[in-house]
Design a protein that fits this description.
InterPro entries: AAA+_ATPase, ATPase_Atu1862_pred, HerA-like, HerA_central, P-loop_NTPase. This is AAA+ ATPase domain-containing protein. It comes from Allorhizobium borbori. This protein is an alpha/beta fold. It folds into 3 domains: about 240 residues, P-loop containing nucleotide triphosphate hydrolases (Rossmann fold, 3-Layer(aba) Sandwich); about 70 residues, no CATH class; about 90 residues, Arc Repressor Mutant, subunit A (Orthogonal Bundle), CATH 1.10.10. It contains 22 helices and 14 strands. The strands form 2 sheets. It has an 11-stranded mixed beta sheet with strand order 2-1-11-10-9-3-8-7-4-6-5, sandwiched between helices. It has a 3-stranded antiparallel beta sheet with strand order 12-13-14, covered by helices on one side. The longest helix has 17 residues.
Length: about 500
């Protein structure tokens, strides 16, 4: 792999690696890709290799070592079939995912890895499976991609690292940050090569994996590019600094270098603003967009929706079946009852709107609530009003109607908090405590509650100040009303009353 201090060669036992797996970690620019390329070049003639390459950097291995380049922009069935034949014929390959969106990269990599994993037993030959940027395919937490894509990709990576050894698959995963990599994937590696790292949480995890003292973790900040600390049965029984040796092939992308700008030209405006005639004949390449996953709540709403329009015979059948017809007032009363049942649950404040909406749809069907159900946006609006605790007298006032109009100027998740404060102002009630505001927002953080009031001030909707005793008052200029002084650090009165009643 390179040299250790003193100039001696640093060796890696490939047969031991096939049985124990490898984890490479280092911040961007630490030399991870160079290390992987060195490993692949040195072992190319000894073991079959499969590289999951999100940036297309390793396709240059094909020219010198004969790796087959597989474009990831294929259907799931195609990728599974190619992966099976890769194992059957023992061909080294690079799965390049360059040009795909992140979610498509995760799905393509998962399909290919599953194809390798599900190969027939007679084709379980040893394969070195290298996954660059592994934190993308095995994230520690949900990100901007759909849950479905994340689960499929994480499952494939878990199979590779946890169950792949018996099927001949030896995982070699590289990541920029250990904190972003799923722990159950990282924990299966027995060999480690740790490069330059700056964040405390990553240094601490690297030190734990290498069995170093926390004070020794500072050494990872001082590592030069291309230098790693090795540990594992395939490398060294004790932490060993290694300088990775040179490589014979190069990536298509390289580290940025300083370049002087061209000399200034007088015709620069003509060069930039005058289009080339070929630009009009060149076909546009549309950006490949990943379709957004369909929200579960929309599907549930469709499933729970009654028959669109009942014809006269259908209506007659409904009457003959004994099902009562509800007036709009009765339907509204039953709808309010269902909403109240949901909101009265002490844990409802800390559940997501999607979970509450599913509960609402189930309860509405059990109560045989006729007509189409509320949409998710309508449901959020009704929940916000219900959570404010407004009484009938206040709800019928002109000031409350103004408050409802003003609440539309904030996002759906903030409307309940705004209406809670507005109701207190209209009724001259003490300003709710931070704990009460936090529960209305669905959190336990008092600091976040104070930030919400600050946000309303920034939007010009409210003004917060304190009286001479230090109690908080929130005024609403558009309502010409303000709350009575209230203790911001006080308890959540409603929660205390609920606990006492129980």
């Amino acid at each position: 792999m390179g040299t250790v201090s003193g100039g001696q060669q640093a060796r890696l036992d490939i047969e031991e690696l096939l049985a124990t797996r490898l984890l490479v970690q280092g911040n961007s620019g630490s030399g991870k890709s160079h290390l992987l390329r060195r490993l692949l070049e040195q072992s190319a003639e000894w073991v079959q290799q499969v590289i999951i390459d999100p940036e297309g950097d390793f396709v240059t291995l094909a020219d010198k070592y004969g790796h087959l380049v597989v474009d990831g922009e294929r259907t799931e069935a195609e990728l599974v079939g190619i992966a099976n034949r890769i194992r059957q014929h023992r061909v080294s390959c690079v799965l390049t995912l360059e040009g795909l969106e992140v979610e498509d990269q995760m799905r393509a990599a998962a399909s290919f890895l599953n194809g390798l994993f599900d190969a027939d037993r007679e084709y379980w030959f040893p394969v070195l499976v290298v996954v660059d940027e592994a934190q993308m395919f095995a994230p520690a937490a949900a990100g901007d991609v759909s849950d479905d894509a994340r689960k499929v990709s994480l499952s494939a990576m878990t199979n590779l690292m946890c169950r792949g050894r018996k099927r001949g698959l030896a995982g070699v995963i590289a990541t920029q940050r250990l904190a972003k990599l799923a722990k159950n994937v990282a924990a299966e590696a027995s060999n480690f090569l740790m490069g330059r790292t700056f964040l405390d949480i990553d240094m601490a995890r690297a030190a734990d994996l290498l069995g170093l003292d926390r004070r020794q973790a500072e050494m990872f900040r001082d590592l030069k590019r291309g230098n790693f600390v090795a540990l594992g049965p395939a490398l060294s029984r004790r932490p060993l600094p290694i300088a990775i040796g040179p490589v014979e092939t190069s990536a298509r992308s390289s580290s940025p270098k300083l370049m002087p700008l061209p000399e200034s030209r007088e015709d620069v405006e003509d060069l930039i603003f005058t289009p080339d005639p070929e630009e009009f004949t060149r076909p546009l390449t549309p950006r490949r967009l990943t379709p957004a996953p369909r929200p579960t709540v929309d599907i549930l709403a469709e499933l729970s929706r009654a028959t669109p329009v009942a014809t006269a015979p259908q209506a007659e059948t409904a009457r003959s079946s004994g099902q009562p017809e509800l007036s709009p007032e009765e339907r509204e009363a039953r709808l309010s009852t269902v909403l109240s049942e949901i909101i009265d649950d002490p844990q409802a404040a800390f559940r997501t709107d999607s979970v509450l909406y599913q509960d609402f749809l189930v309860r509405a069907r059990m109560r045989r609530l006729p007509g189409p159900p509320l949409s998710l946006s309508e449901f959020r609006r009704r929940v916000a009003i219900t959570r404010s605790g407004v009484d009938e007298e206040t709800a019928a006032s002109e000031g409350w109607q103004t408050a409802l109009d003003l609440s539309r100027r904030v996002s759906d998740d903030l409307q309940g908090v705004f209406l809670l404060l507005a109701k207190a102002a209209l009724r001259k009630e003490p300003c709710p405590s931070d704990a009460r505001i936090a529960r209305a927002y669905g959190t336990h953080s008092a600091r976040r509650a104070r930030r919400l009031i600050g946000y309303f001030e920034e939007q010009g909707l409210a003004v917060a100040h304190t009286d001479f005793t230090g109690k908080r008052i929130v005024a609403f200029p558009d309502l010409d009303a303000e709350t009575a002084p209230g203790n911001a650090d006080g308890p959540d009165e409603e929660a205390v009353a609920t606990d006492a009643a129980e």
